[in-house]
Write a structure and sequence with these properties.
The chain is built from 8 helices and 11 strands. By secondary structure, it is an alpha/beta fold. The chain folds into 2 domains: about 120 residues, Rossmann fold; about 100 residues, Arc Repressor Mutant, subunit A. α3 links the parallel β3 and β4. The protein is globular, with a radius of gyration of 18 Å.
Length: about 230
């Protein structure tokens, strides 16, 4: 049973999402503002959050910033805005994905399943070596932990999966479209900006100087790779 928190100040939207996701494997928690969402996550074992951006008292972006101080739970933003700049802002602040209103039930279900699958490591199939080390970075896939110089690095589930893909294939260049297709399990429309934001976050966490990365390299016009070391 997976616990999903739906946070939106409109009751009708909360109810609609519960209908879209009606599934015996899901238990739903409700919140109607950011403060309620924070209390819910602090007091319950939440596996995924659907979080509206535009809310009174504490909006979705500020709520997400507070959540990220203590939890890496997957967060899917719900937004009525379709501009790329708004989506990128959400990803910059720690979101794993976003869904634009009005919702399509099939899309909602697919994105929730994708995030849960990564977060809970279900249906992973045959794993490649449990531990991968490149330079001072070590990824332990059994423990789902990344360390830098022996110190744990806090990554979101999406950041972890991107880093794992690159570390398990050192030297291989992956285009943004290919990374998006593999990690999000979705058609790679608008994938360049989404992937670029997550790559930047990874560099900030694993590179001494993100502006001159040692490990996570860009191959101009082609994509990204993990440097062999």
């Amino acid at each position: 049973m997976y616990n999903i928190l739906i946070c939106d100040d409109e009751v009708d939207i909360v109810n609609a999402l519960k209908i879209y996701l009606a599934n015996e494997e899901y238990t739903f928690f409700e919140a109607f503002n950011g403060k309620e969402a924070l209390r819910c996550i602090e007091n319950n074992d939440i596996h995924l959050v659907l979080l509206d951006v535009m809310m009174p008292e504490m909006d979705g972006i500020m709520t997400m910033v507070e959540i990220r101080k203590f939890s890496n739970v997957p967060i899917i933003l719900l937004t009525a805005k379709s501009e790329d700049s708004d989506k990128i802002l959400g990803l910059n602040m720690g979101a794993d994905d976003y869904i634009t209103k009005p919702f399509h039930p099939v899309e909602v279900s697919a994105r929730v399943k994708s995030q849960l699958r990564r977060y809970l490591q279900l249906g992973a199939g045959v794993m490649r070596p449990d531990s991968v080390r490149i330079g001072n970075i070590e990824l332990d896939d059994r423990e789902k932990q990344v360390t830098l110089d022996g110190e744990p690095v806090a990554l979101t589930p999406t950041e972890y999966e991107i880093l794992k893909l690159l570390m398990q294939n050192p030297g291989k260049v992956f285009s943004p479209r290919e990374i998006y297709r593999r990690i999000w399990n979705d058609q790679p429309y608008g994938s360049e900006n989404t992937v670029a934001v997550h790559i930047r976050h990874l560099r900030e966490k694993i590179e001494i100087n993100p502006a001159e990365p040692r490990y996570l390299k860009v191959v101009w016009g082609q994509g990204y790779k993990m440097e062999k070391r």
